[in-house]
Structure formats: C-alpha cells, structure tokens
Amino acid sequence: MAGIILESGVVLVPLACAALYIVISSNMLLFVFATVAATVGFAIYRLRYHYSSGARGDLIVRTKDTGAAAAASKTRTKKKAKKSASRAATEPESDHSSGGEFDEIVQDAQRHCDVDDEVVERSGALLAAAVTPEKTKYDMELYGSALSYDHRCFYICGRPTWVLAADFDYWRIPIPPSSGMADQITDTWRRVLLQYKAAGFNAVRIRFHWGFHSPSKGKYDFSGNRDVNQLLLLCEELGVLVIACLGPYIGDDVQGGGYPFWLIQRDHIRLRHLRASGVKIWDDRFAAAEGEWYDQLVSMLVGHEVMTKSVRGRGCIVMVQLENHLGARGALELPLALQDETRLLARMARERVIRAPLATNNLRWPDDFTSLAARTWAAVEKKLRSYHVIKGAYHSDIAGFTVRDIAGLPVDLDVVARVTKGDNAPMAALELYKPSGESAAGSFSRQVEAAISQGLSVLSLPAYFSIGSWGNLDSPLKCRQGDCGYSAVSADGSLSADARSTRLVLHIARAFELQVASSDSVSSRPWITSASRPTVRGVSVSGLSASAVRVRRQWEMAATATTRVPEQQSESTSGEDQLQMTLAAYVDGQGATATAADNELAFLFTLAGAPAITKGHSFALTGTLGPRQRGIFISNLVVGGKSGGLLSLIAASKEIYTRVALDLGVEVWICAEESIQNGQLFFDGECKVTGHAEVEIVDVDHAKDRKFSFVIPKPGPGVATVIGENGATVHVVLLAQNDLDTLVVDYGSFDSEKAQHNGTTGAMPAAAWGVDGILMADRGSVELAQTRANTTGRIVVVSHMQPQRCAGMRFLEDSTESAYHGHQFIWHYVAETSEQSDDTCTDVSVRGLEKRTTDWNSLPWKLLPTMADLETMDEINLMSWQRDLGTFAYQATDVGFNASHVLHRCQVRLKPQHLTASTIKLQLNVRHRCTVWVNGVNMSGHEAFHELSAEPGSLTACIESMRNAGAARGPDRWGGTATYDVTKAINISAADDEDGALNEVVVVIESYGLGTQADGANDARAPRGLLAAYWHGFNLIGEDHDDSEIHDHSHDKRTEQLKIRWEICGVDVTQLQQPYASSGFPDETSQTGWQPTVEHPFASQGWSTRLNVDVNAGVQWWRWQVEPANMCKDEPLYLSISGKVVAYVWVNGLLLAKHRASTKPSSVLLRGGLGSTRQQASVVPDEVVVMMYGWADDADTSAADGNSTVAVELSLNDSHELPALAP
Asked: How far is residue 481 from each of residues 5, 198, 343, 476, 1053, measured CA to CA in Å?
C-alpha cells in the first residue's frame, strides 16, 4: 500500500500543483474567495462538532458474536500487518504462509490488541441535550451548610477557607514489594502527609493513576499501596483537604498520560478520542472504558467528601477534578476538545453519587483567555450561538486553569470569570508553576504570594515535593530530564531556601485565613468613610509604585465572625453593627530600584476618619521587606479578651508569620527579629509593654480623641508582651534566622478540640522551631521526621500546655541559655541524637558484593516477523518490497513489552560466496537508545530521541517533532536510523563449509517511555523498540540465483533475505502485578550465576568502590547488602553513581532509579526521606542490585588485560551532594 501511495503521489502531486497554478493565474480573486470560504466553512463545521459531537448518553458494553467480530476486524489501525498476522495464525499450512513459525508472537499480539472482545451499543439522547451545567451543578441548597463557595473562596461549615495544595502522587512513593503490610504503608503515607502540613499546606491534589491500579484488562487493585480508601481516611484524620483528580488523563509527566498499558495496546480504541494528532472523533469504546474506570474509583471516594459527616468526623474531598488539560487547540487555533468529553465525565460522576463541586483544568492563562486566537473564536462562537448554529458550551462548577508565571503575568479575574462563566465561583489555579531560572522571580514563594494577592483562593503546586519515583512511571520527557532541581523539597525531605520562604508565606496566609480569605481588592469595593473605632482604610508605601502594593480587605460581622458577609449588606455602612475591617497589604519590592527595596520603607496608612485618601495619610510606620523582598502586612486585627475587652492592632510594618492561641484573649504572634525584617506594631489605646520591646504613646491625625501605642521591638531574638487596657494580651516572639527557617505550625485536624477552640479567631494550637524535620500532629504530639538534628539540636515549642508526646526529643529542665526562656507557654527540648557525630551515619556495613552476567541463550526468545514475512506473493508491491523486508510487523508495545528494555537477536550463517561487498553493514531504526553486540563485540549504539524546544501543542512544536526522530511528544517521523560497519566482528566460514559460520547480533534497546496524548498529540502509540533492520554487503540467495528473482512474481519462494530471522525478548508487563516495576530483562530476578567479586575502594569515608564494566561482556549485574549504623536506621542514605554507563538500581526488590549514560553523576536515595524503601525490620539489611552496560565509544582500551572497560564509581553517603572522589 505504501508503494501504491508513493507511485500515485509521484504522478498526482505535479498535476495538482499545475492545476493550482492555472487557477491562481487565471483568476486570483476567485482563488482568494474560495480559500476564505473553505476556511470559514471548516471553522464553522469544526466549532459545530466541538459543541455537539454526537456522543450518546447511554453506553452499554457487550461481548461480540463471531459474525460481528469478523466485521470489526476491518477497523484496525495497522491493517496490513495485523490482517496478515491473522491469516498467518489461522492458515498455518497455507503455501503462502510461514508454516506457523510466527504463531507465538502473532497470538501474543492478538491477545494484547484484543480487537473483537467487546462492542459498545449506543442508545438514548445526545449528551449535549441530556447533560447541561444545570443538571450537574453542585447543590448548594442541600449541602451549603457543610460546603459552599462564592467568587472569593470556599466556606467549610461557614468558615472562609483557602485551598492551598501541592500535588501528592501516592503512586510515586517507592514502597518495595516486601513492604506489603498495611500498617507500614499507612505509616509511610502519614509521614509524607505530615511533611505537607509542616510545609504550610492545608490540602493536597491527588491524581488517581488508572494504570497504577489496573495492570491488565478487567483487573483492578485497591489494596496495599493502592488502597485509596485508607489514604483518604488518613487525610481525614490529619485534617488535610483533598482535590480529587479522577482523570483518566492526569498529566504529561507519566507514561501514557496515566492510561493503563492494556488500553493503549488496543489500537482500535481512540485514546482521548484522537484519531490523529489534532483531529478528534468521538469514540464510544473509549467512553465506555472511562466509565469502567469511574465505576471502580468513584465508589472509593463517595464517603469521603467534605459534606459527609459520620462517626469518624468530616470528609476531606473538597472538589473533584474531571480530566486534565483538555484545552489544546488544533488547526486554525480552533478548540480541539469535544464538549461531550467533559459532559460525559460529569454525568458519570454525578450518576455515581459524587456530590462535591466538579472542576476542570482545561485552560491556560493567558493563552486561552487573552490571545488573539482565543478572543477571535470566542467572538465567532458567540455569533454562531446567537444564530443557533452551535449549542451552548458546557461549564463545570469551577473552571480551573494552569498558570506558568502568575507573578509576571497577573491574572485578570474579570476576564477569567467571563470566559469560564464562573462569576460566583472561586478562582482556581489547579496547576501553578514557577518559571524556570534561579532568580527570585522563578520561585514558588513569589508565585504563591502573587496568587493570593490577586484573589486566587484555590491553588495547587505540581512537583513541589520531590517524592521520588521508581520503575517506569515517568514520561519520555521527565524520564530524560529528571527533577532538574525544580522541586522545592528534595526526596529526603531537605528544604531549599525557596521552600522555607514559601512556608513562611503559607504560614501567614493560614494565620489570617479567617480574616482575609473572603476578601476583595480595594479597587473593587467602595471605601469606608467612617467607623466606630480606628480603622485603616488605605495603605501605600513611599518609594514603591502603586502596582507594587495590592490591598485586599474583608468585613467581619458582629453576630457571626466566622460567616461570610451577605452580598446584600451595604459595604459602606458604619456603626456598631460592624466590628472591624481586616486589611492585608501585599508589597512586592522586586520591581523597585535596589535602594528602594533594600533600604527602610515608609508605610503610609490612612484612617477611616480621614477626609480623602488622596489628601494625605494619618500616620506612618517604617520597615523593610526582608530577604524575600516582599511582604504581607496586616491591619485592623482584633484580639478579644475574657471580659469582652479588645486589643486592636491598627497597623503593622512587621510581618506576623503565625498566631498561636493560649487562652481566650491571649495570643502569641511570631515575627522575625529586627536584623532580618525591621518593623513596628501600632495598637489602639494605651498598652503596657514588657520584655523585648519598647512602647511610645502617641496620637495621630484624624483620631485626635484617642491614644495609640507605638511598639518598637528591640534588636535580637526575644519575647515582648503587649497588654491591652482591658486585659487582652499578645506575646510577640522575635525569631532568629535559623529559627525562622525551621518554623512549623500545628494546624490541628478538621474536628479536633483545639481547632474548634480556635475556630473563631484563626489562631493556631501550637508552633515549634529549632531544627529541620519537625512534624506536628494533632493531640499535642511533636516528632522529628529525621533522627539527626542540626548543629544546635534545640527545639522550642509554643503551646498553652506541654506537648503530650515528643518522639526523638528530651525535655530540657534548664533553658536559661535560650533567648525565649522564662515563659510558661514556651517548652524547650533537645534532639536525643544531637550530641552524636554526623560522621557515624556514613559508616555503613556493606557485605556480599557479587556479580553475574546476562546469558543471552537462556532468555525466552520469540521469532519476530517482518512485514514481508506476513505477505503473500499477490500482495507484494515492487516499491514497498525492500522496505517490508526489514520493517517488523510488530513493535515492542504490540506484544506487551512496555518495560524500559526490549531485546532483539539475529543469527545468520555466512560463507564467502554470500559476500557482495568488501564491508558488511547493519542498519537499525530504534526508539529510543540501542546498544549493539556482534559476536560478543560491542559496537556502541545510537539514540533516537528529541526534546522539543518549542511550546507544546504549537504548530512550531509539531513541525519540530516531524523533523526530528524520536520526539519526546507529538508525531514521531520514520527517521532515527543508524548504520554500523560490523565487518571486523563478522565470522566468515571456509568456502567448503556447508553450514557457514554462525554470527549472532544482540541489540538491547532502552525505551524512555510511551507518549502521553498531551496537547492534542496522538503519540501514546508511537513505536518503541526495534522498528526496522537491514543487512548490507551479503546475499544469501547464493551463486546459482540472481537478484532478479526477488522481483519475479512467478517465483514461488520468498527472498532469501528472509532466512535472516530476528527474535524478540522482553517482559510482558500486563502479566505483572505491578506493570511499572520491570526493567524489561527477563532475568532481572534471577538468583543463579552470582559470583563473589572484588571491591576497589577509592574514597576515605563511608563505603565506596570502583567497578569496571566490560562493554564486550554484555549486561552485567552487581549486588550487595547494606546495613547502616544502628542510630541511623531512618537517616537518608544515598548511592552515588558516576560513570558513562546505563545503570539501573533495585533496592529490596524495587526498581528504584536509573542512571543515564552521561558524564553527569546520579544520586539515588536508598532509604530515609519522604518515602523510605527500608526493610520493615531494622535488623534486616537492605539489598541493592545494580545492572550496568556501556558503549565501546566510552570505554578505556588501555587496560593490561586488553578488555574494554568503563570505570564506574559507587559510594554511599548521607547527602544528595556527591562527595569528592579520589583520583
């Protein structure tokens, strides 16, 4: 068929070009008119199909009968190969078949493709008519008392709430097969979730991975580390809100976008309805498969929604996200997604009793909101809708979006609301990224701060935590790039400077969530002109532009301080019915001049009694912005006393990072000491100040009838106490830099007694600082995530009572050395291991170093047919014949070999009379990286992989992927071929040898993973493994034949090139309990062939060795046991690998990491950190297995024994920073 198309194209293309030239030259106006008409017609047709794709409301899956099965076989994508394969399997004795020699591989391919196993019958009304936004809308009337929302934020039980989340991919946590006990898995999840809480987040976005739960068709596993119900129970226990991302597509960072391998292999199903890249046509089979996934998953989630209240407490799921990234655009920048895609998922969710608000994440800011294409087609759609040419768009309850740089490109909420029709829905950045780069602009802290200041109340940070990864979960792009330093928290729990800054921002947000979450920008609300008590109504900063200061404010009602302000309430009303207006000023000094940002700034405040905000300010405070060059400053904050008296903070030029409630009317405010962030506090009334601060009693303009207290902290760390006129008290704790960097807050759980006690004030139950790794759980417990503390080893806890449990810490009776001693609410501890030397944790016991080599002959090889093998003579086309000779009928994915490696072998016997040239060459086309051995001689290899530089989904990216073989995403062109001169390694027999000399070629191919179906690219089924193989330089036909017989249709033999048989070998992942856990080598779990080997130490500390990888020996394996010192069982322990080889690392049976063949060293976390892979019993050592092989081009041939080896240096250390190696 390919040859016919090519032959036709040679004739038709020139004729078409000539015809087009005649039309253009004869009548240009007619040509232009026809082009415009065709474009407009295509656009209208595409938009009409976009809004009404013809999908049916009811989907019924039934088994096909035999007759229907035969008819449906014509729908296969790979018609030529698989049609011929079916014939080869069903007619093995035919003269035109291969005699059944390919039966095994053909049957494997048929089993995986499984074309005729089911049919979807369609009935019912069109989804466009059956599913409307009104029918799937969240029932605020019924569930509003538990969960409601408006354009400002969510309200959980009436309490304003920000949803501040980071992605928690539970399936990325490396848990070895030996750790199957539910208690151990739950403990691992608990430790990770506590890390999220310690970082300041109150929510997680959980992406449920279809492929992780479904290893094979019809099989689903929700046990062990897949136990979704247990995970959600744990979130409820710890007070962590959940954004449940159901998928089925979850992102472009995982293989296949999260779809299971068994679904990807069924190429008669259009994944994400993509018929080709940029073209979608509705597929009922795919819709039915989505329904199968929802049937299995949604039942696990229903009982865990926030509006669910049971004996175990309140649920945790605050919103449910359908699909992900459906906003790709196709030809002419028209929207590519089908409206029925979201309609169907919304209907399936509601029919399965999901009650939480439904959200989508299909749009990108600003591309899909303000770009010329977006605005043009929005106008066209509006006009077509008015003429009833197209139907209305479907909108979920909450239309989330993706933001790449919210600080550099601020979100216009009015534009977002207009496009998403979400006038009364909170703004949700469900994927908030930071821009690349090391500058402060490319930081999570700035993005989070900018998002909150711009009014976003829901946000989630992807890849904020480097939980780690294992096996083959990653997509090709992520597999190659790795973390690249993007994450703020490393896999061992270490916090970057950005993570520490982000944590402070989140602490501030949560400390004033009750007062500020349901706020509006002052530019969108009328100014208050009068108030019953001194109230700040405006803030400006001298030396900074107006755009550098964003001010948001909220009203609090006297009757119910925790309820939201009724919309009908007049916002300019004054009097005793209103207690206070809370105001937050977000100051960004990064765009200012260096002197303005670094020097002391003047904060100018205007009171409500001032005649006009533009006619001067009421008073001023001075302060600096601190290391972040940004700040969040609170005004109009009230602390209520026991007797009804109030202590009112009028304004502050000092950031208050968190608040801890000790009693009614008694709070602790935690700030930075003066050398870090200079500022003052301004209180109403004459206050008494003791401790580490001074006070001045002053009066101000516009409030001459009152006195005010101007509190000035003293230099250095310490505690100052401010007592109001009516007894309300605030203890201001000033922290040093190290203490501020380690500040952790106890936010309690949903229904804990402490949370209810502090629910009306917003203050927290407790806080702690001093060392990294502090975890604060409910019920007053404090523990350390890591045993080893930093050099101080001192831990300070602020709480109204002594913590009940302090794991790994010892209480200090004498704390006079501390700058915070002498207060009954401050408790001092010391880490029990702080006095031990850090060096002890690098002393590990390594024993039993052994080695083995993969035996090619012991592997389960299967014959692999080419396209020509499955053709009959009447189907041979002269122009495609030579191509079909070397093109294989099946790729690795067709037979389930979706692991990292697939192996190919060719055996051919050669005699002198077969040679037709002085050199013998082997031409290979692979995806993605191959290594070639010919008769045991390493011939190096080549790589066919390209990382796109253009924006994904753009026309430039499509063109780039077509020009470069092995594109990371998008279409993959046929290229990627390399030719190897194998003459020196080939064996040629004597002329009189009847059989000829045997030659064996082994090709090991490493795949970087399947495509992801992202951005409208139909790439999940892009070929992997060995695509084609051609020999040059010999002819097996022999002396008594000539080459003309190859093209002789009457010749009853196939070309003698078919005597060159290729075999394939790998691991069928659909037969594994965990399909992502294999390297692809069938002998990866072999316990035979191991022999002791010798270590070659090269460093002075810890354990280290230098291994020499013989590139001609094939694939080699090493293993050993590791047992750290007793006091370091939970300490992070890294394996560092340096050497230009491919290395795979298993720990306790789990494929944990991969080292790419590059000069850049790798560091693998063996144990400890967020997800530990250690054995359950501490007395059992960890088993480490490393598989390695390399290329001859990278080998050293100067060894005395004549071997070609690549030196690989291995070491165990306690840091991801690689140690200095000895020469």
From this structure: 39, 28, 36, 9, 49
